[in-house]
Design a protein that fits this description.
Layout lengths: L1 E2 L4 E2 L3 E2 L6 E3 L2 E3 L1 E2 L29 E6 L2 E8 L2 E10 L4 E10 L11 E6 L10 E6 L2 E6 L8 H6 L8 E3 L3 E7 L3 E7 L5 E9 L3 E8 L9 E12 L2 H7 L15 H18 L2 H15 L1 H16 L1 H10 L4 H15 L7 H20 L22 E3 L4 E3 L1 H16 L6 H19 L4 H28 L1
Antiparallel strand pairs: 1-2, 3-6, 4-5, 7-8, 8-9, 9-10, 10-19, 11-18, 12-13, 12-15, 14-17, 15-16, 16-19, 17-18, 20-21
Length: about 475
């Protein structure tokens, strides 16, 4: 939907059923643009540098309109601004052409600034809403709620200018607004000279991405045109790669070094789903495959832990014997480890080697749009959101079974894992860590919690089997 106020876009709904959103009133097409409809003026062009005020709020005249295009014109002080929209909804694209014809009798310096406002929203799809741009071969992303609000990281690293505005100068391939599973981005034809900035309208509540250029003198009697492509759609890898300009980087694949793993796990998850037809089952099978693939590393780690378990009584005796002489205790412990072929760090390196796999899987499950509204079974009807079994009345506390089961599995796993630290500290860790992880995962999507819980269960079974083998061999 377009408005003649600023010749701006006020609504862009995705009509495909798979991208619908759930509301108290029922299922309806998702609206990509955020904010109140009266102030939702996306792709407005203020041209305040002309000296006629904010032209982004002026009423344009509709010159022509068809099912897939519209031309809107504004005349002010001898200047004619013409904005032409051409729509390609099948690919979630539109083309915007902005021309300025200068008949004012003076030299103008147009910056062709295009604004994309966003407002904080509690709607599920908008909870991670950010301003985003691709600048100097990297993604710049700032949560809408954080724009214009002083933060520790902006203070430490100077990410914003003193006025609270984040400025990206030159080489902006695209800029816009980013949701967890959707993105809206303006792609200028002159990317090398494009600038962008993130600025707050109401700090912590309303902000906007502004894409523009350094001013170029436009003599009277001449005209200039700027062209843009605009993508407003789902974060699907193939679609974004087809658009080009590195728009696929709007998908959060994690840190650069982990991105290939994330892409691989995304691909593998969809391959498994093609056979089983349920993403919950696909996550379980993916977790099993990852466990099988890391079996040699994990097995070595568990064997080292079991060796440590077997010698724990002797270690505790040494600790008690030399409790008043830390240096002597350390010397005797190292001697004991060497004589018994035990490495206290033997379980650490394999664990570190598993971290990239865990992180890659985390980002794969976090960024996969296929999990959005994907059911598992029973009350777990959306693997991209926390699954609430019921809500305790009066205190409005949601009861979520998956995180609770995951926390219990952590307790069991930790009790099976030998501890080399002081018993009191070990007991505290066994209590604190599961509680902390349960609280953290309580807000996580069900798909992520399901993966972690199944991984814990497989780890418990593997640890029990390794322990049985070690005891049989002893």
């Amino acid at each position: 939907t377009l408005t003649n106020k600023g010749a701006a876009l006020t609504s862009w709904e995705l009509s495909e059923e798979r991208y619908s959103e759930r509301t108290p009133e029922g299922i309806r097409p998702i609206e990509i643009l955020s904010g109140s409809e009266s102030e939702r003026l996306v792709l407005r062009t203020p041209f305040e540098e002309f000296g006629f005020g904010d032209l982004g709020s002026r009423r344009y005249r509709v010159e022509s309109s068809t099912a897939d295009s519209a031309v809107l014109v504004l005349e002010a002080g001898g200047v004619t601004i013409r904005k032409t929209y051409r729509f390609d909804p099948g690919n979630y694209l539109l083309r915007l052409s902005v021309s300025v014809d200068n008949r004012s009798g003076r030299i103008l310096n147009p910056r062709f600034e295009t604004q994309w406002p966003a407002e904080v929203s509690e709607a599920p799809d908008f909870q991670e809403q950010s301003l985003i741009a691709f600048h100097d071969d990297g993604v710049e992303r700032e949560a809408v709620a954080g724009v214009g609000v002083p933060g520790i990281f902006s203070d430490l690293f100077g990410s914003a200018d003193p006025d609270g505005v984040i400025r990206l100068r030159g080489g902006v391939d695209w800029a816009g607004v980013d949701l967890r599973y959707f993105v809206g981005a303006v792609l200028p034809d002159r990317a090398t000279s494009a600038n962008a900035r993130f600025q707050a309208t109401v700090p912590g509540q309303v902000a906007m991405t502004v894409l523009g250029f350094d001013p170029i003198p436009l003599p009277s009697g001449q005209a200039v045109v700027n062209d843009y492509r605009v993508y407003l759609g789902p974060k699907e890898t193939k679609r974004l790669e087809a658009v080009g300009a590195q728009l696929v980087q709007s998908i959060d694949f994690g840190y650069g070094w982990i991105a290939p793993l994330t892409r691989f796990f995304n691909w593998l998850l969809n391959v498994i789903y093609a056979f089983v037809g349920n993403y919950g089952v696909a996550i379980i099978l993916l977790t099993i495959l990852v466990r099988v693939a890391t079996l040699p590393i994990v097995g070595r780690q568990m064997k080292s832990m079991e060796k440590m378990r077997a010698v724990q009584p002797q270690i505790q005796e040494l600790q008690a014997k030399y409790k008043d002489d830390r240096q002597k205790q350390s010397e005797e412990m190292m001697k004991f480890y060497k004589e018994n072929g035990v490495n206290p760090l033997g379980g650490c390196l394999p664990m570190l080697l598993q971290f990239p796999v865990f992180i890659g899987l985390f980002f794969a499950l976090q960024s996969s749009i296929q999990l959005r509204h994907a059911p598992f079974f029973g009350y777990i009807d959306d693997l991209s959101a926390p699954a609430t079994l019921f809500v305790i009345p009066e205190i409005d506390l949601p009861v979520r079974l998956l995180p609770i089961l995951m926390g219990l599995s952590m307790i069991v796993q930790q009790r099976m894992t030998p501890m080399t630290m002081d018993p009191a500290q070990a007991k505290m860790m066994m209590t604190i860590m599961p509680v902390m992880m349960t609280v953290l995962f309580y807000q996580f999507p069900s798909g992520l919690v399901l993966y972690w819980m199944i991984s814990n269960v497989l780890g418990i079974a593997h640890q029990a089997w390794v322990g049985k083998q070690q005891r049989a061999a002893a």
